[in-house]
Specification:
The chain is about 15% helix and about 40% strand. It is mainly beta. The chain has one domain.
Length: about 120
């Protein structure tokens, strides 16, 4: 049995994805998190998707990618299609897998084609 089955997470992780996952944004909500080391509490944005149980903690990189694709107003992201993909990134001196956002095939980013 996998530890992820014994201790399921409310949030999607890179190891949860088996290839790209096309999703539709249902909502973005601010949720409170506690840093396990400092015990400091902070608010972070979490994306929830139609037909998905887990949310995605939306870091600044992913928020900027979605804004580039669908505009800066987060309320307007609802109903928009995005693709979750897994990439290798450098973090804290190590190479780790992270979830990143890309536009689904055949879609154009907000403002595309404007001169």
């Amino acid at each position: 049995m996998k530890l992820s089955e014994i201790y399921p997470s409310k949030y999607v992780k890179a190891e949860d994805l088996d290839g790209d996952a096309e999703v539709v944004i249902k909502e973005l909500v601010m949720e409170e998190f506690e840093d396990p080391q400092t015990k400091k509490r902070s608010q972070k944005p979490v994306l929830y998707f139609q037909n998905a149980r887990k949310g995605l903690i939306c870091n600044k990189t992913n928020a900027a990618l979605i804004a580039k694709l669908h505009g800066d107003e987060t309320d307007e992201w609802v109903g928009k299609h995005i693709t979750l993909t897994v990439v290798d990134v450098e973090a804290f001196g190590d190479i780790v897998q992270a979830i990143r956002i890309k536009l689904p095939k055949g879609e154009k980013p907000a403002g595309a084609g404007l001169n």
